[in-house]
Amino acid sequence: MAAAELLVEQKGSVAWVTLNRPEVLNALSEEIVDGITTTMNKIALDESIKGVVIKGAGRAFCTGGDVRAMQAANPDIVEEYVGRLNQAVLALKHLAKPVVAQVHGFCVGAGFNLALACDLIVAAEDAKFVMSFVQVGLISDGGGMYFLPRLLGPHKAKELLFLGDPISASEARDLGIVNRVVPSEQLQSATEALMDRLVHGPGLAIGQMKLLADKSFSSTLEEMLRAEQATQPHMVASHDHKEGVTAFLEKRRPQFEGR
Predict the structure, then answer these.
(1) pLDDT tens digits along 67-115
(2) Contact assessment for residue 148 and residue 119, using Cβ atoms and an 8 Å cutoff
(3) For the purposes of burial, counting CB atoms within 10 Å of the CB of 229, is it exposed (0-12), middle (13-18) or buried (19 or more)?
(4) 171 by DSSP, 3-state: which?
(5) Domains defined along the chain, listed by start
(6) Are 100 and 180 in contact (CB under 8 A)?
(7) What are 172-184's pLDDT values in tens digits?
(8) Sheet order of strands, 6-11 included
(9) Is the pTM of this model over 0.70?
(10) DSSP characters for 9-76?
(11) Strands laid side by side in the 106-108 sheet
């Protein structure tokens, strides 16, 4: 029996989601794409999971679309597949819990965009990021045409899109794509340390800040001010706010519960 192409393991309150096609450097497949959508939707309903890590098995994070499968593709197949990829991206963005991409090796094409769909990126020093679509005569899909210009501005985004040149982990950090760069042997421990902070934080507030920050790109200042005004009363009524205030006054660390 073939191994599952998407592995999900819960450790404590973190779901570790592994792209598991190491023989093709975790090129995306329908099973992986649909699995991400299904997994994120399940995690949204699971109160025991406070955060998610997406990583790749073997020597790479993800090399994007499977070039071998492209030989047999036709416009109808591609339109249907990209629609499924879109659902995976939306599931990541709509999840009111932090999602961290743990990147090593190649992070290419739709794999690059998968990382961009996450909230934070921790990268090993050996990571290489390539917006490779232009090399095979395609546009960037999986959200790349949305995420990259908003992250970098139109001119720098177009440079990466038009030329498809690789950038190192340190270059990606300097551009604001990557949050943290660590030696390869420290990637796992650095990700675990970050997740420990996130899942022990006020999960309700973190989840709402994620959704509101993403909403800001398509909203006016007035709309965002109204959204903040509508959301803050719910935060004030939360257990975590009360615990945070009490802990501050008692000069101790708060014990947040995400509610």
Answers:
(1) 777 777 788 889 999 999 999 999 999 999 999 999 999 999 999 999 9
(2) no
(3) exposed
(4) helix
(5) 6-199 (3.90.226.10), 203-249 (1.10.12)
(6) no
(7) 999 999 999 999 9
(8) 6-11, 14-19, 51-56, 99-103, 120-124, 180-182
(9) yes
(10) EEETTEEEEEE--GGGTT-B-HHHHHHHHHHHHHHHH-TT--EEEEEESTT-SB--B-HHHHTT--HH
(11) 106-108, 128-130, 167-168
Contact (Cβ atoms closer than 8 angstroms) between residue 49 and residue 10: yes
Task: Label the pairing between strands 128-130 and 180-182.
Answer: unpaired
The distance of Cα 200 from the centroid of its chain, to the nearest Å, equals 19
Least Cα distance to 43 among 8, 90, 7, 84 occurs for: 8
Q: Could you give the CA distance from residue 182 to residue 54 in angstroms, rounded to a whole number?
A: 17
E strands present in the chain: 6-11, 14-19, 51-56, 99-103, 106-108, 120-124, 128-130, 167-168, 180-182
Please say whether the beta carbons of 135 and 90 come within 8 A. Answer: no
Tokens (6 digits) for 42: 């399940």
